[in-house]
User: Fold this.
Amino acid sequence: MSNVNKASIPTAQALDAWSNQSSETPNSLTIIADSNIASLDDFFNAQTLGQEIYQTVTVIKVAGRDIDAQLLAKAQPDVLLVRSVTPVNASLLADNDSVRFVGSATIGTDHIDQDYLIQRNIRFANAAGCSKHSVAQYVLTAILTLRPKYWQQPSTLGIIGLGNIGSTLAQYAHDLGWQVLGYDPLLPESSINNASFEQVITQSDAISLHVPLTQQDDSDYPTWHLIDQAALAAMPADTLLINSARGPVIDAAALTSDIAETKRQVALDVFEHEPQVFAPLLNQLALATPHIAGYTLEGKLRGTQMVYDALCEQLALAPTQSMHQLLPLNTYLWSELKAHPERLIRFYDIRQDDKDLRAKLSDGQVSGADFDKLRREYRLRREWQR
Ligand SMILES: NC(=O)C1=CN([C@@H]2O[C@H](COP(=O)(O)OP(=O)(O)OC[C@H]3O[C@@H](n4cnc5c(N)ncnc54)[C@H](O)[C@@H]3O)[C@@H](O)[C@H]2O)C=CC1
Ligand SMILES: O=C(O)C(=O)[C@H](O)COP(=O)(O)O
Assistant:
């Protein structure tokens, strides 16, 4: 049996050409995938998935925001692979009865209606923890760029949400001799889960948010507008606030007024009205980046690897591709940076990302198209080895 990788088709427009040729081959596997998933061709092809079972593996690559119900109804894929910008729910899948597996190469799952997928008996996998070091390193870079004195001076880092990213950030904070005040009502008390929400808000030098976006229906501790006008009013003006979780965790209108009044330093990687970013907030931020905290080569490849492994399990195949075969040598060592703080800009020049985003400001906003373009064309950083 020969395995033929029929094609990786780059755009939705190519779907018409593909569907005219498609002869509904038995044992064919059709995948619709967000073209922003790293190394799609390396992980999803007839060699890595065929293995005597699938004669044809077709990957239709589409921009995440263009994956819609019409496309799914027409292509009738077996597998849907997304990142964070494609809402996967009844509106997307109602007219489709072919999808058996949905993979999101991301940590966050707020774009996925998991109850609906269970109802439809569609297996779901995400990439929990894939970029936890990358995001933690983004946060450290933001803090140390804005407050270089914290390399030497003991400070208190408040962490809200102590899952994969929050707990990883706490390890780096301890490496630097910082005190950690952590709050996570869904985890047992621990050496880092050691404070109330109020204590974190009122007693930290810097606060970093690492919660999923949840609403009242999903959680006893919803995070939508967790940082609202009251939380900001309780936060001392010199407390640095960083959000790399999801935009709506902070009430953007309240934050805009708060910074105008307090001149607080705030670093945002995510925005309430993303992909649009509005000037009144952007112009007051100490640092602003286009949702790239997790965008390292390692973080993105790990995300792809995790959904590939889960798909292999679903198909009862042994995984044959590994991200380690695809990674160039990594020379970024956390121990080196700790010994030479002046090299931070070489490890991650966050001000360049900030500058690139602000350069897109026009007519009072960064448009969704420009925000997405910055992300699509982002030169992936390397994750520091710890
Ligand atoms: N900016 C970026 O590029 C990235 C952003 N993210 C975002 O970061 C979020 C966190 O990621 P992980 O740490 O890997 O997730 P995780 O699921 O491992 O941890 C989240 C933690 O938040 C806690 N939590 C939930 N509600 C809370 C509340 N009201 N108050 C305090 N804690 C609460 C949970 O108990 C859990 O321990 C993701 O859900 C995603 O939205 C993730 C990756 C990249
Ligand atoms: O993993 C997550 O959760 C994230 O926020 C991603 O890193 C965001 O990347 P995209 O999925 O929007 O490319």
In short: Residues 107-108, 129, 131-132, 135, 160-166, 183-187, 210-214, 219, 221, 223, 226, 244-246, 269-270, 291, 293-294 surround NAI (ligand 1) (CB under 6 Å).
